[in-house]
């Protein structure tokens, strides 16, 4: 996403600059991908339970009036951020986003990347450059300087479970002195993270911050049942859309130009209906099941001679650098069922806005426990798209069933319901519009950057208070 200063109205000049940047981004060969968190939440087992979490209410209104930054109290505080790695995946990018939000209120930030490849890496270099430009100090992961910073910092933010390895390896005897000011931000729930090697210090930190209630419940349960450890105070913080994304979503000219451009590149007509999954292509994200539902929907439309515009399935997230068995399976299915002309495969991209501008319905088909949060869902809602999502994970906390989209069960049980939902939305333009508008209103109400800032500010205040007591 191109970085742009924002402010009320975007001038015509700025708008064109934005458009040009977007088009450059479109033609770039960099095949990376953000959108929804790249950290998968899937694993074989699935558990349902309820347990109390000391949650910051995600519905809290945001509270702040325009102009008042809820993070203001972080001015001149020193924060050490420890990222398990530096890449264009969801976890590190979110931490970077928080670093920039805090820089904007004058927080001093030191950034440490725990695991780095030994060879020079272009992505790491450019991300570090970007941080340096914004006044984030990038420091070595090990050594006395890292220890001193940790001891001096007002707050230490560990990002993802794996970052826990940094504590003993670097701080050694100082671990107990640092733990009371650690906020641990967790974005994943795959089984192998429930490992004492990573999380044995988790009970003793000031707090854990987790992207959805479902994920927080899962952590609470798993740490208890599997590892016999107790979660610290746990805060659920739903994410928000960046201002950059909202700028494009709310600019009707930008949206129209992008829509025309992408539709032309996909070879579809103005009135064709595009149902898309925008996610890395993997079984956990459910592209295979989506295509099966889509095929079922096409058959229904044909059998019942339903009067609907031509419908297309778009899969955004192909990795050109590693052709997987799963991708081959998807392509074979499409060839076997002879629906090639109705399906489009698109490369992974960092820049999801052009695709959101060009599609009509987002399908969020993540399987098993679903997404931890699923940022692409709120991004799609910003573009006034209805969402057809699995009733799992963070999606259930974002999509209001029947209002901003429809939920279907994960797994094979969801095939026919999803097919029926696709047909319904294809037939009912008013439903699509109504759900899209309701989704947008929900984003305005709770999924903007300032909402996220506010929610995070409550957690940071709490953690600072504990660290100083
Ligand atoms: C935790 O999950 C397991 C299944 O994975 C379930 O049997 C158990 O009852 C859950 N425990 C709590 C406290 O919710
Ligand atoms: C995907 O990337 C490959 C390799 O860079 C390129 O040849 C191909 O045209 C791209 N496809 C699309 C649909 O952008
Ligand atoms: C969603 O709502 C539909 C009716 O609008 C209902 O049939 C379906 O069971 C609901 N799904 C969930 C997961 O609540």
TrEMBL record:
Alphabetical UniProt keywords: Glycosyltransferase, Membrane, Transferase, Transmembrane, Transmembrane helix
Residue intervals passing through the bilayer: 16-35
Pfam families (UniProt xref): Glyco_trans_4_5, Glycos_transf_1
InterPro entries documented for this protein: Glyco_trans_1 (IPR001296), Glyco_trans_4_5 (IPR041693)
Keyword Transferase: yes
Domain Glycosyl transferase family: 260-441
GO molecular function, one term: glycosyltransferase activity
Keyword set includes Hydrolase: no
Protein name as it appears in the record: Glycosyl transferase family 1 domain-containing protein
Organism in which the protein naturally occurs: Dorcoceras hygrometricum
């Amino acid at each position: 996403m191109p970085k742009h200063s924002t402010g009320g109205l975007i001038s015509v000049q700025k708008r064109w600059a934005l458009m040009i940047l977007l088009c450059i981004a479109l033609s770039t060969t960099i095949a990376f991908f953000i959108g929804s968190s790249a950290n998968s939440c899937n694993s074989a087992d699935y558990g349902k339970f309820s347990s109390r979490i000391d949650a910051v209410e995600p519905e809290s209104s945001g509270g702040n009036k325009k102009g008042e930054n809820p993070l203001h109290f972080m001015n001149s505080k020193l924060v050490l951020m420890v990222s398990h790695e530096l890449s264009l995946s969801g976890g590190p990018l979110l931490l970077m986003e928080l670093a920039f939000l805090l820089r904007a209120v004058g927080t001093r930030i030191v950034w440490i990347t725990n695991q780095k490849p030994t060879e020079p890496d272009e992505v790491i270099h450019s991300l570090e450059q970007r941080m340096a430009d914004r006044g984030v100090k990038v420091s070595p992961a090990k050594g006395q300087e890292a220890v001193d910073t940790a001891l001096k910092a007002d707050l230490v933010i560990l990002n993802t479970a794996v970052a826990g390895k940094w504590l003993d390896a670097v701080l050694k005897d100082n671990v107990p002195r640092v733990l009371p000011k650690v906020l641990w931000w967790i974005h994943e729930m795959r089984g192998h993270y429930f490992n004492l090697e990573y999380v044995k210090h988790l009970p003793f930190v000031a707090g854990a911050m987790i992207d959805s209630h479902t994920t927080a419940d899962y952590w609470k349960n798993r740490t208890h049942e599997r590892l016999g450890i107790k979660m610290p105070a746990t805060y659920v913080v739903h994410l928000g859309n960046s201002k950059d994304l909202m700028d494009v979503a709310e600019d009707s000219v930008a949206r129209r130009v992008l829509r025309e451009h992408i539709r032309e590149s996909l070879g579809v007509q103005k009135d064709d209906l595009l149902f898309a999954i925008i996610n890395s292509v993997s079984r956990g994200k459910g592209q295979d099941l989506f295509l099966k539902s889509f095929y079922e929907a096409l058959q229904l439309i044909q059998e019942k001679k339903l009067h609907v515009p031509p419908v297309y399935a778009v899969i955004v997230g192909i990795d050109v650098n590693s052709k997987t068995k799963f991708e081959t399976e998807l392509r074979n299915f499409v060839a076997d069922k002879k629906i090639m002309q109705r399906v489009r495969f698109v490369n992974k991209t960092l820049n999801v806005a052009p695709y959101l501008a060009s599609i009509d319905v987002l399908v969020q088909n993540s399987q098993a426990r679903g997404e931890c949060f699923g940022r692409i869902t709120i991004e799609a809602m910003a573009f006034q798209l209805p969402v057809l999502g699995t009733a799992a994970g963070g999606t259930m906390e974002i999509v209001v069933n029947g209002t901003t989209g429809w939920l279907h069960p994960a797994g094979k049980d969801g095939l026919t319901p999803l097919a029926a939902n696709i047909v319904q939305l294809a037939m009912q333009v008013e439903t699509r519009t109504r759900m899209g508008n309701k989704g947008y209103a929900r984003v305005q109400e709770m999924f903007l950057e300032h909402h996220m800032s506010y929610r995070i500010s409550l957690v940071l205040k709490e953690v600072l208070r504990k660290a100083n007591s």
